[in-house]
Specification:
The protein has 696 residues and is an alpha+beta fold. It is 17% helix and 42% strand. The chain has 14 helices and 37 strands. α12 crosses α13. It is elongated and about 125 Å long. The relative contact order is 0.05.
C-alpha cells in the first residue's frame, strides 16, 4: 500500500496532501477532545434519557471515561431510578458503580464486543399492583394490551461479566408473587475450566427457597459469530428446572435452543417460572428441546410423565399478541384416570410447591392469579386455577369445590388437543379420553369432550366464560349406547340394559360445586329395553312374601324392563324429579322427589303398582336418602304411598315421557317398548288389563 501511494501520480498533489492532513488533524483533535472532555457533564443527558425510557425520575452522581486505550471504558457512579410514589420501595433500580469497556478492534470489524461489564451493588425493586399497574411500565401506566414487551433481550458479546452484591426484589400482587434474592456473577478462568463463568441467584419465592445457578465456558473466548453454550439449574420450592442452552450469536437471546427437564409436585406451580396458566397435576417430570426465535417458543419433542401417565407431543407458545397463546397437540399411550383428579379439584391433597398457606387459602395452582389484593407472603399463598383441591372432601361433598381463579385464565389464550389411547380406570370403565380445548379472551371451550367407555360413550361440550367477575358455565353432555352391565364386572347386576341420557345445565360459580348450586337445566336418562332383577321389581310393589323370598334365596331371575325413564329439572341447583317410571313385566314403577345440589342431599322415593292382584302388600315406598357421597336406601313405614293405579300413573306421565325421549334422542320415541309405553299411557284402560298376567 505504501509503495502504491508513493508511486501514484496523485500522491504529491496538494489537494491530496491537504485531505490527508485534514483527516489526521481531525483524528488528533477528536482524541484531544475526548481526553479533555468533561464526561461528568453527561450526567444530565444520560439521566434524562433513562427517565424518558422508564417514565421515572433518574439521577446520576458521576460519569467518567478512559479513552486512551484500544478498550476504552465508561463509568457511571451513583445511578438511581426512582419508583412511582405508590410503590413501597423508593428506588426501582440503583447501582453503586457501572463500568463498561468496548473493544475498538472488534468495532472496526463490524462487531460489538464488551471486554468487561462490571456492576457493583446493583439493587432492582419491581412492584405491580392488583389493578395491573406496574412500576416498570413507561409513564407508570397500566400495561398495554400487547405482549411486545416480552420480546427477548439482545445483548452484545461480553467477555467478562462481574456482578457483586446484587439484590432483586419483586412484589407482584396480580400473580400474588413475592421474590427476594441476591445476585452475583464472575469469571474464574483458570486451567481451561469448562465452567469458567458462574452466575448465582439465591433467595425465596413466596417464602420457599429459590436457587439459580448458571455455568458457562470462559467468556474471554466468546466470539460474536460462534455459538456459546451454558447450563442453568433452577430450584423453586418443589420445582426443579435444568437447561442446556446454546446461543448462536452471543448474547442475542432473540434466538436460542435449550434442552430442558422440568419436574415438581404440581405443574400449575410452574406458572411462576413460565407465566402460563397450567392445570393442577400429580407429580410430573417433563423434558424436551425448546427452540426460541423471535416471539415463538417451540417444543417438538415434548415428553414425560404426569403421575402414572405418560405424555408426549408438540407445544408452541407465541408472544406479541394481546395475550400469550399456548398451542399444543398431546397424546398419552396410557392415562391413569386418577391423575386427572387434581385438575378437577378432587382426590388427594395437592402439595403446594410455591405457596405458603394451605389449600383453603388459595392453594393448588392451575392457572389463575386471583385479583384479590394485599401483598403476597405467608398470609396469601400462590393462587391457582383450581385452588383448594381438598375442599370438597373436607366439606363432605362429592362435587369438587376448588375455585377457578379467573385472572390466569384471562391472561393467556390456548388451543390444546389431547388424545389418550388407553385409560387405566378401575372404578369406571373408561377406555379413551379425547378433547379439544380452546381458551380465548377469558372464554374456555372444550368441544368435543369425549370419554369412550368399554361399551358406549359420554360426549359433548363444556363452556366456561371467565371474562366476568363470576365464571358462567354451560354443559351439554350425552350418554350414548352405555351398557349398564359393564359397571358390574363381578356378580349379577340388578339392572341390565343400554342407557341413553343427556345433561344440559347452565349456571354460575367459581367451582363445580358452586356451579351446580346455581344450575338450571335438565338431567335425563332412558333405558329403552333391559332387564331388572325380579326381587327388586317385586319389592317396589311391594309383594313382601315374594320379594323378600326372592332376595333371601338370592334368586337371580330377571324381569323384562320394557322402558325406563328418569328425568330431573334443575331450578337454581334443585333437581326435581319430573319423571321416574319403569315398566317391568309384573310391576309399573314410578318415583318422585328431589336432589339439592347445594347441600347434596337426596330425597327420592319409588313405588310400584303390581299388574296383578297381590294378597300381601306394603304401601310404604322405597326411599333413597342421605347425600350424593353417601346415599342410603330403605323403607319408611311411617310414610304411606298413594296407590293411584298403573293406568292413572301412566296417564300423568305421558307428556313428560314424550318430552324426555325427544330431549335425549328423537329416535327413542320410535323404540318399540317406549312407544308401547306411550301408547298405553294414552289409553284410560289400566295397564293390568292390557298386559297378560304372567304364569304363576
Amino acid at each position: 500500500m505504501q509503495a502504491f501511494l508513493a508511486n501514484h501520480p496523485l500522491s504529491n498533489h496538494p489537494v491530496v496532501k491537504w485531505i490527508v492532513l485534514s483527516i489526521v488533524g481531525l483524528i488528533v483533535i477528536l482524541l484531544l477532545a475526548l481526553a479533555l472532555f468533561d464526561w461528568n457533564a453527561l450526567r444530565g443527558p444520560i439521566a434524562r434519557l433513562i427517565s424518558a425510557r422508564t417514565g421515572n425520575p433518574t439521577t446520576i452522581d458521576k460519569v467518567s471515561a478512559h479513552v486512551w486505550s484500544w478498550e476504552p471504558s465508561l463509568t457511571i457512579e451513583g445511578l438511581n431510578v426512582r419508583n412511582p410514589s405508590w410503590a413501597e420501595r423508593p428506588d426501582m433500580a440503583s447501582v453503586q458503580k457501572i463500568m463498561v469497556q468496548v473493544s475498538l478492534t472488534s468495532l472496526l470489524r463490524g462487531s460489538i464486543v464488551l471486554p468487561l461489564v462490571q456492576l457493583t451493588s446493583p439493587v432492582v425493586s419491581l412492584e405491580r399492583e392488583k389493578s395491573g399497574r406496574a412500576s416498570w411500565d413507561p409513564q407508570n401506566a397500566a400495561p398495554a394490551t400487547s405482549n411486545a414487551g416480552n420480546a427477548s433481550p439482545h445483548f452484545p458479546a461480553v467477555r467478562r461479566l462481574v456482578i457483586s452484591n446484587g439484590e432483586i426484589h419483586l412484589v407482584d400482587r396480580v400473580r400474588k408473587l413475592s421474590f427476594n434474592g441476591t445476585l452475583t456473577a464472575d469469571e474464574r478462568a483458570n486451567g481451561g475450566s469448562d465452567s469458567a463463568f458462574r452466575l448465582r441467584c439465591l433467595g425465596s419465592i413466596n417464602g420457599r427457597a429459590f436457587h439459580l445457578q448458571a455455568n458457562g465456558g470462559p467468556l474471554i473466548n466468546v466470539d460474536p459469530h460462534k455459538p456459546y453454550g451454558f447450563s442453568v439449574d433452577v430450584t423453586a420450592g418443589d420445582i426443579a428446572l435444568a437447561l442446556q442452552v446454546s446461543v448462536p450469536k452471543p448474547f442475542d437471546f432473540g434466538a436460542y435452543d435449550a434442552k430442558f427437564e422440568l419436574s415438581g409436585t404440581d405443574l400449575a406451580d410452574a406458572y411462576y417460572l413460565t407465566n402460563l396458566a397450567l392445570p393442577n397435576t400429580a407429580k410430573y417430570r417433563l423434558r424436551g428441546t425448546l427452540k426460541h426465535a423471535g416471539n415463538e417458543f417451540r417444543i417438538e419433542d415434548f415428553r414425560g410423565t404426569v403421575g402414572a401417565s405418560d405424555l408426549e407431543g408438540r407445544v408452541l407458545v407465541v408472544l406479541g399478541g394481546k395475550r400469550p397463546k399456548l398451542t399444543a397437540a398431546l397424546t398419552s399411550k396410557r392415562l391413569d384416570i386418577a391423575d386427572l383428579a387434581p385438575s378437577m379439584g378432587t382426590g388427594a391433597p395437592v402439595q403446594q410447591g410455591l405457596s405458603v398457606g394451605g389449600p383453603n387459602t388459595g392453594g393448588a395452582a392451575s392457572g389463575g392469579a386471583a385479583a384479590g389484593g394485599g401483598a403476597p407472603g405467608a398470609a396469601q399463598s400462590a393462587e391457582a386455577l383450581s385452588g383448594g383441591a381438598t375442599a370438597a372432601s373436607q366439606a363432605g361433598w362429592l362435587l369438587p369445590d376448588a375455585d377457578l381463579q379467573v385472572n390466569r385464565v384471562r391472561g393467556m389464550d390456548a388451543d390444546v388437543n389431547f388424545d389418550a389411547e388407553s385409560v387405566d380406570s378401575p372404578k369406571v370403565p373408561i377406555k379413551q379420553v379425547r378433547f379439544h380445548l380452546v381458551l380465548n379472551d377469558g372464554v374456555l371451550r372444550i368441544d368435543p369432550l369425549s370419554l369412550a367407555l368399554a361399551q358406549g360413550q359420554f360426549a359433548g361440550s363444556v363452556k366456561i366464560d371467565a371474562s366476568g367477575p363470576v365464571p358462567d358455565s354451560q354443559i351439554d353432555m350425552r350418554l350414548e349406547d352405555v351398557d349398564l352391565a359393564q359397571f358390574f364386572p363381578k356378580g349379577e347386576p340388578a339392572l341390565r340394559g343400554v342407557l341413553a341420557g343427556r345433561v344440559e345445565l347452565h349456571g354460575a360459580g367459581e367451582s363445580v360445586h358452586k356451579f351446580a348450586s346455581t344450575a338450571d337445566g335438565s338431567v335425563s336418562m332412558v333405558i329403552p329395553h333391559g332387564q331388572i332383577r325380579s326381587a327388586f321389581a317385586e319389592l317396589t310393589g311391594i309383594n313382601i312374601a315374594k320379594g323378600l323370598g326372592l332376595l333371601l334365596s338370592k334368586d337371580q331371575t330377571q324381569s323384562e324392563l320394557r322402558c325406563g325413564v328418569a328425568s330431573f329439572e334443575s331450578d337454581h341447583g334443585q333437581l326435581n324429579a319430573k319423571t321416574i317410571v319403569m315398566d317391568t313385566t309384573n310391576v309399573l314403577i314410578a318415583g318422585h322427589g328431589d336432589v339439592n345440589l347445594r347441600t347434596e342431599r337426596i330425597d327420592l322415593a319409588v313405588q310400584g303398582d303390581p299388574k296383578q292382584l297381590r294378597l300381601l302388600r306394603l304401601r310404604s315406598p322405597i326411599e333413597v336418602t342421605g347425600t350424593l357421597l353417601k346415599p342410603r336406601v330403605g323403607l319408611d313405614p311411617a310414610k304411606t304411598a298413594l296407590q293411584a293405579g298403573a293406568g292413572a300413573a301412566l296417564a300423568t306421565l305421558l307428556t313428560p315421557v314424550a318430552a324426555v325421549l325427544a330431549f335425549i334422542d328423537p329416535g327413542l320415541a320410535k323404540n318399540a317398548d317406549c312407544s308401547a309405553l306411550l301408547a298405553q299411557a294414552t289409553s284410560s284402560v289400566p295397564l293390568a288389563q292390557t298386559t297378560p298376567a304372567p304364569a304363576p
